[in-house]
Design brief:
Helix 4 crosses helix 6 and helix 6 packs across helix 9. It is globular and about 50 Å long. Helix 3 links the parallel strand 1 and strand 2. It has one domain: Deoxyhypusine synthase (Deoxyhypusine Synthase), CATH 3.40.910. The strands form 2 sheets. A 6-stranded parallel beta sheet has the order 6-2-1-7-8-9, sandwiched between helices. A 3-stranded antiparallel beta sheet has the order 3-5-4. By secondary structure, the chain is α/β, with parallel strands linked by helices. Helix content is about 45%, strand content about 10%.
């Protein structure tokens, strides 16, 4: 983290560093206690309340209840998606969370952005490898020869990528010709909203978090988009001359600016005493670290000292606490970086996100 000098300090080579921390003038306002308004008490919710009583399971219920209170108090929630959560079909519950106003922004990897639509377009053609740990190099080569791209126990057919490729190239070329620049998700939203994919969906549209995000028009930020199939295709199209340059897709720093502006617009919530924006992190990596850094950037680099810290934090990851790692860093470390306040509700669930996150979402949805 950059150490900032105070205004007027010489900053000359050899001058003592000013280690005075940059502290926001206004600490987060703690929400008053409110009674949860979650619908009913379904079977999943009752089961978790009755059986998830200690250790990681207790943390799951505590995180879910705190998430619920955060929303009921008027706070907004950003969800970050790492790994291959879309291929794991997290959209089945995430889409419902978006449609019911319990998720207000997404930060995700390029893989999660595109793979939600991949599974919608070819889910019935995906292949399952039940004994994937025992696959030999020759077995993997055979999958490659058939155009089956493996993600753990799930194989994605290469053909679906080409199915979406044509529609994206058409839009990139049109945008480049008109001098239009958009974020990666906006091109996919254009494809979704055009309706031209509707007849090709192999799974119910209600299972797609991308379709839900397009319907609700929530912002989707995608740092490191070039590390994805569609990002690779875009690069190839520039290299072969199909696209004149890279300018029709906005950059990562532009995404940080858009995210930071959204945060400033939403950190107050609906009520005067509402919490700041919450942060629900699925996995680790760039999707999480990119988004959570908006707050220290606003405070320390832009000097917006009235910026509030994130108002809720939960991370679900199977990454072990490690030396120098982000994904396994405990939440309190984020206090030192100006991301969280000591009083921010903080939860760290060390488990498989594909198991835990649907349970938390189901709890908040009242299932």
């Amino acid at each position: 983290m950059t150490t900032h000098t105070t205004p007027g300090s010489p900053g000359l080579p050899g001058s003592p560093a000013n280690l005075t921390p940059v502290i926001p003038a206004k600490l987060p306002v703690r929400p008053k206690s409110r009674t949860s308004t979650a619908p009913g008490g379904g079977g999943v919710r009752r089961f978790l309340d009755e059986n998830f009583l200690h250790f990681n399971s207790r943390e799951v219920v505590a995180a879910a209840k705190s998430y619920e209170l955060h929303i009921d108090a008027g706070g907004k929630m950003l969800v970050s998606l790492a790994g291959a959560m879309s291929t794991a079909r997290l959209g089945k519950t995430l889409a419902r969370m978006i449609r019911q106003g319990k998720v207000h922004a997404i930060s995700c990897t390029g893989a999660n952005l595109e793979e939600d639509l991949f599974v919608m377009l070819a889910g019935a053609e995906y292949e399952h490898c039940p004994d994937w740990r025992a696959l030999s190099a020759d077995d993997e080569q055979a999958l490659y020869a058939r155009g089956m791209n493996r993600v753990t126990d799930t194989c994605i057919p290469e053909t679906v990528m080409r199915h979406l490729e044509r529609r994206l190239i058409e839009r990139w070329k049109a945008a480049a010709g008109e001098g239009v620049r958009k974020f990666p998700n906006e091109y996919l939203f254009d494809v979704i909203r055009s309706g031209e994919l509707d007849e090709h969906y192999q799974l119910p549209a209600e299972d797609s978090w991308m379709i839900a995000a397009a319907e609700k028009n929530i912002p989707v930020f995608c740092p490191g988009w070039e590390d994805s199939t569609t990002g690779n295709i875009f690069t190839a199209m520039v290299m072969n001359g199909t696209l004149p340059d890279h300018q029709c897709v906005k950059t990562g720093t532009e995404q940080m600016q858009a995210l930071s502006s959204w945060y400033l617009d939403n950190m107050a919530g609906e009520h005067d005493d509402s919490p700041s924006v919450g942060f629900f992190q699925v996995g680790g990596g760039i999707a999480g670290d990119f988004a959570i850094c908006a707050v220290p950037m606003l405070i320390q680099d832009l000097k917006k000292l009235d910026t509030r810290f994130w108002g809720y934090f939960c991370q679900t990851s199977d990454a072990c606490t490690s030396y120098g790692g982000y994904s396994g860093a405990v939440p309190n470390e984020k206090i030192t970086w100006g991301k969280l306040d000591p009083d921010t509700p903080k939860f760290m669930i060390e488990s498989d996100a594909t198991i835990v996150v649907p349970l938390i979402f189901a709890y908040v949805l009242g299932d």
